[in-house]
Amino acid sequence: MEDVITEAAPPSRLLEEDLNNFTPPSPLLPSPFLLFSHSQQPLKPSLLIIAISSPSLSLFNNNFNPKTLIASLILPELPLSLPNNTLDIHSLSSTVLIAAVRCSIPADRAYAVANVLLSDRIRPDSVIILDSLQPMNHRGLLSSDRAVAFKLESLAERKRADGEKKLLDGLEYYPSGSVVDGLGAAILGRCQVLNIRASLCVSWPQFDGSVVLLLKDLLRRCALPEFDFGLSGDDVLKYGKSKDHVFQSHLYI
């Protein structure tokens, strides 16, 4: 006769997904929304730059001020009493806007933010996304002594009309087998759905003055040839040297 105390319990007759029927669903988070500082009319810039990485935010830091603020994207779950909890959209010129992503966007909210950022109220002709390369997503060796950047493009950018300049010229494509996730990937996917010319730049190291200079040269060559970043050599030195160490990714190895 079996010992009912020591014998393992029989397997449940319910499937694991059926057990979730007894658990109340988590409440849905409110959708992010845009709050405009002046006009409520749809914005139609020729270029929208989305700065997610720390070097890209540092590059444009002197251009972020209340006079250039056009709109803010609000995530209701983040307290507004804390600084940098909004995604602010500034004007760099009459035809170029930049969205400064200073807060960390959770992965499960990335697509909601991308859908609001690229909606009927903001309709750019083209989009440049400046994000950091996450070492765990890269297949290969990364060194903190060498600044590198790669790109991914939407189909509309790859099939641009003859004579149209590339959004990010001179960058190699992201190595095959590597992946990108987070807000940058969600925005690129949104551009793909809306058939918008878009290019995603991922750079490494994540915190380094050399990457600031790399992005500055890239944007001056491709998208903002006459723009004054207001960034001096001292500002780059203040940004500091990267603390990222050599990283060997074992992705797909």
Q: How many structural units, i.e. domains?
A: 1
**Largest beta sheet: what is the strand line-up?**
1-3-4-5-2-6-10-8-9
Largest sheet: 9 strands, mixed
Mean of all residue-level pLDDT scores: 84
Taking Cα atoms only, what radius of gyration do you get, to the nearest Å? Answer: 22 Å
Q: Give the structural class.
A: alpha/beta
Give the % helix. 10-25%
Q: Briefly, what CATH class?
A: Alpha Beta
Categorize the overall geometry: globular
Low-confidence stretches: none
Total number of β-strand segments?
11
- Per the CATH scheme, the topology name is Rossmann fold
The number of helical segments is: 7
Order of helices and strands: HEEHEEEHEEEHEHEHHE
What percentage of amino acids are in beta strands?
15-25%
Distance between the termini: 51 Å
Give me the CATH architecture, please: 3-Layer(aba) Sandwich
The CATH H-level superfamily is PAC-like subunit
Describe this structure in words.
By secondary structure, the chain is of the alpha/beta class. The protein has a single domain, classed as Rossmann fold (3-Layer(aba) Sandwich), CATH 3.40.50.10900. Helix content is about 20%, strand content about 20%. It has 7 helices and 11 strands. It has helices spanning about 15-20, 55-60, 110-115, 155-160, 180-195, 210-220, 235-240, and strands at about 35, 45-50, 70-75, 85-90, 95-100, 125-130, 140, 150-155, 170-175, 195-205, 245-250. The strands form 2 sheets. A 9-stranded mixed sheet has the order 1-3-4-5-2-6-10-8-9. A hairpin with a 4-residue loop joins strand 4 and strand 5 (about 95-100). The protein is globular. The N and C termini lie far apart (about 50 Å). The mean pLDDT is about 85.
